[in-house]
Design brief:
Helix content is 33%, strand content 25%. By secondary structure, the chain is α+β, with helices and mostly antiparallel strands. It folds into 3 domains: 46 residues, Uridine Diphospho-n-acetylenolpyruvylglucosamine Reductase, domain 2; 110 residues, Uridine Diphospho-n-acetylenolpyruvylglucosamine Reductase, domain 3 (2-Layer Sandwich), CATH 3.30.465.10; 95 residues, Enolase-like, domain 1, CATH 3.30.390.50. The strands form 4 sheets. Strands 4-5-10-6-7 form a 5-stranded antiparallel β-sheet. It has a 4-stranded antiparallel β-sheet with strand order 11-12-13-14, with helices on both faces. Strand 2, helix 2 and strand 3 form a beta-alpha-beta unit. The protein is globular, with a radius of gyration of 18 Å. The protein starts with a strand and ends with a helix.
């Protein structure tokens, strides 16, 4: 690892000011991707600005069916929230199967979303739930926030502060994890709210997380695992690597969608 200067931000304003003063700084919130990358000397920021200790970015707030999760809330905190589990167990289940205990107690929802790894779990939940991503500058629908593989709409000095969504009538997430990394080789988040289905896929798409409108149409008229059996999953849009080719991943998407619908009930 190259030398870097560590800063513990006390507020978002403090973090933004430290970013402006540094030569080539990076925000870090959990560091589950950035720190290993730095250890391999594939990244060398001059400064690291830690967001995990900003109290205003922590915690889970529930108001009726409206859920707001602070960006510095860890995966373990999301997974263990009994109040959230009563309202939207799908996101608690998703958080509880991210990585291993170390990752879940260090990694944060904001860090995962900001990194937008193509195999990360939270992006599928955000799109599947129709969530809004709140930042220091604006509020964006999740579909506008995730713009490509490892790419988001965030500006360099912009910080995710929270995510917000309305709990659906029913929802579930199912993924086929890589046995070593626990990242999704294909993960599907399904949600039904007021007769409208949403289906978001992670881990399989060549351009990152995406909605599958064909499955959404099928499930909106017939909420059952059988409804997605005839859905087309374009192999040309799938990732192909040493873990699984495009045809394999296309099939996994359908299998995970069926399992998610069955789990949602």
């Amino acid at each position: 690892m190259y030398e870097t200067v560590y800063h513990r931000a006390t507020s978002t304003d403090d973090a933004v000011a430290k970013m402006a003063e540094a030569e080539d700084a990076k925000f870090v919130s959990g560091g589950m991707t950035l720190i290993p990358t730095m250890k391999q000397r594939l990244a060398a920021p001059s400064d690291l600005i830690d967001l995990r200790h900003i109290d205003a970015m922590k915690g889970i707030a529930i108001d009726g069916k409206k859920v707001t999760i602070g960006a510095a809330t860890t995966h373990a905190e999301v997974a263990s929230s009994s109040e959230l589990a009563d309202l939207c167990p799908a996101i608690c289940n998703l958080a509880g199967h991210i990585g291993d205990p170390h990752v879940r107690h260090m990694g944060t929802i904001g860090g995962s979303i900001a990194n937008n790894d193509p195999a990360a779990d939270y992006p599928a939940a955000m799109i599947g739930l129709g969530a809004e991503i709140m930042t220091t500058k604006r509020t964006l629908p999740a579909e506008d926030f995730f713009v490509g593989m490892f790419e988001t709409a965030l500006e360099d000095d912009e910080i995710i502060t929270a995510v917000s969504f309305t709990a659906p009538d029913k929802a579930a997430y199912s993924k086929f994890p890589n046995p070593a990394s626990r990242y999704a080789m294909a993960g599907v988040f399904v949600a039904m709210n007021g007769g409208d289905a949403r289906v978001a896929v992670t881990g399989a798409g060549s351009d990152g997380v995406f909605r599958h409108t064909g499955m959404e149409d099928a499930l909106s008229s017939n909420w059952s695992a059988d409804a997605v059996s005839d859905a087309e999953v374009d192999e040309g849009d799938m990732l192909s690597d040493l873990h699984g080719d495009a045809r394999y991943r296309a099939n996994l998407v359908k299998v995970m969608a069926k399992r998610a619908v069955a789990a949602a009930g």
